[in-house]
Amino acid sequence: xxxxxxxxxxxxxxxxxxxxxxxxxxxxxxxxxxxxxxxxxxxxxxxxxxxxxxxxxxxxxxxxxxxxxxxxxxxxxxxxxxxxxxxxxxxxxxxxxxxxxxxxxxxxxxxxxxxxxxxxxxxxxxxxxxxxxxxxxxxxxxxxxxxxxxxxxxxxxxxxxxxxxxxxxxxxxxxxxxxxxxxxxxxxxxxxxxxxxxxxxxxxxxxxxxxxxxxxxxxxxxxxxxxxxxxxxxxxxxxxxxxxxxxxxxxxxxxxxxxxxxxxxxxxxxxxxxxxxxxxxxxxxxxxxxxxxxxxxxxxxxxxxxxxxxxxxxxxxxxxxxxxxxxxxxxxxxxxxxxxxxxxxxxxxxxxxxxxxxxxxxxx
Length: 364
Fold this sequence. Notes:
Order of helices and strands: EHHHHHHEHEHHHHEHEHEHHHHEH
Oligomer: single chain
Strand order of the largest sheet: 3-2-1-4-5-6-7
Distance between the termini: 53 Å
Mean pLDDT: 88
CATH architecture of the largest domain: 3-Layer(aba) Sandwich
Radius of gyration: 22 Å
Number of domains: 2
CATH class of the largest domain: Alpha Beta
Structural class: alpha/beta
Helix content: 40-55%
């Protein structure tokens, strides 16, 4: 451990720390980066599949093609363009971007408590990140898959490449704010949507590589919540003794579980969806803020964290007795001109978000 002066910090039993990988720990969008690296026009293909998946997920009546999210739908095309397990590991390893302070934070929280990572990313990326920051991969939940399990003949690869190029050549597919059904699409967008539907439900669903769609289960919003409950079951630690740090829409149910269960739920540079479900909003360039809150939580529980949040100042942090001098010095060093934004998430935050959406629709 590289935290000089923390020798007297003692780990406290009965609490745990769970954090999203994508955002708080890394700044990568691994699936997008893989597409850009392996697939011709890969970014456009990934974006098109993302919009297709977004509309399907919004549909209140369900949909026949709800067989996978974009990170699954892209897999047959990655395989067709030569991606395999070793190449995905190699690419991920050489393109990791660790968020400032995250490696120190993850080493620190492991000294205090049982710590876990949850991620929507593929296991290749997650395992390489864990190796780089010294985190046990067995404590990471992510999207498991084995690309090498699918053997692909040349004709199948060529066919999938042709479909990939057709998809990126389709007219731009836009989803208007408030759109919730296919009937909300413009005629042109409906044509694009129907063509994508045919490709995934009729034309490539019998290919060998389509097993990567049907057999891989992405770690999405429901899975992260289930992973959180599984962690509690394995450790025997309750939700009210858990801290969860999330950042995007896949964290909303897990954050909601923690908040309702009495634990500490933090949105770290979070999306609007994640922030609405958290109790604490952190806007920071460096994760040392999370280290400070983690120590306060493990020393004196949720009340200690909320006390810091309500009077977020160096003076109060120093006088609270919840945070070691080393972390206070680190906080001051990283933020010499003033502390980053930390606040409770109140109902007026939700009101501002709803009002902003309404104004955008009206202006549009």
